[in-house]
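Table S2 (text version). Query chain:
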Amino acid sequence: MQDRPNYDELLTAVERFLDDEVVAKSEGALRFNGRVAANVIRIVRRELENEEASLAREWDSLAELVGEAPRPRDRDALRAVLVQRNEALAGRIQAGDTDERGFRDSVIKHLRQTIHDKLTVTNPKWLD
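Corresponding structure-token output:
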């Protein structure tokens, strides 16, 4: 791990350059692309800040819905297993398991939290 500058300081520097130099002093496609790039930097920052907690919440929630399983330690492996566990949940939904009120309520709670976590990263303004 690097001491300084950390990832947040580096991303902030690039974001400010894009906002203050590229977007503020350009027009047309360059201005648009500068805004897109600055937004990408903001999304990356939020992803880095929130991913660990978000993945943990999703894992724990899916454990209640599709059963316990050993949690991978590697982040990439965790993401891959979460995809598989979400597919298992989709299978339960397709099989009609959400006809049961308690399970349906748990699925809705899981989906709301997962969507909230994703919007926190992609566009937190949509949460208002």
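Notes on Table S2: The mean pLDDT is 94. The first helix runs from residue 7 to 23.
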